[in-house]
Write a structure and sequence with these properties.
Homotetramer. There is one protein chain. With 163 residues, the protein is mainly β. It has 2 helices and 6 strands, in the order E-E-E-E-H-E-E-H. Strands 1-3-4-6-5 form a 5-stranded mixed β-barrel.
């Protein structure tokens, strides 16, 4: 039987991320997400329905979320559904459907009042797609080309292209 388990959600964090580190050094981050849907009823009344989703993130992604996200911040999450089942002390069976984060995206612009984002390079690399500006590498100077630098197979020059 074929199956496919993928969830894409965009919403706002309902609380600050809760982070812990296991004895093996794995970072685990738990966060809550509020996802809203606006719709109109048959009578033309506009309504909003909000769904609250618990999300678990692991590893480097959990560390980044902990560093840059706070309650109220928007986030786009890709992940998979996971059903947790347990039994209470009274013997009642419980279950909860949650999301295990596989990927995420920053949403919206950088908040100037945000103390965690700062003006350091960590925030700029993440919000600009991971590209950082740097100076070009220094080139070593080589002697001028001579007849011996050309190969007989393609007449190519053994020197770097200047751009």
């Amino acid at each position: 039987m074929a199956s496919f388990n993928k969830v894409i959600l965009m919403g706002n964090l309902t609380r600050d991320p809760e982070t812990r580190v296991t004895v093996n050094g794995l970072t685990i981050c738990k966060l809550g997400l509020a996802v809203s849907r606006v719709f109109s009823t048959k009578d033309g009344e506009r309504r909003e329905e909000t769904t609250f989703v618990d999300i678990d993130a692991f590893g480097k992604q959990a560390e980044v979320i902990t560093k840059y996200f706070r309650k109220g911040k928007p986030i786009l999450v890709e992940g998979r559904l996971k059903l947790d089942q347990w039994e209470t002390n009274e013997g009642q069976k419980r279950s909860k459907l949650g999301v295990v984060l596989e990927n995420f995206q920053f949403v919206g612009g950088r908040d100037d009042n945000d103390s965690s984002g700062g003006s350091g390079s960590g925030g700029s690399a993440a919000s600009s797609g991971g590209y950082e500006q740097s100076s070009p590498p220094k080139r070593e100077s080589k002697p001028a080309a001579s007849k011996d630098d050309f190969s007989a197979e393609g007449d190519t020059l053994d020197e770097d292209v200047p751009f």
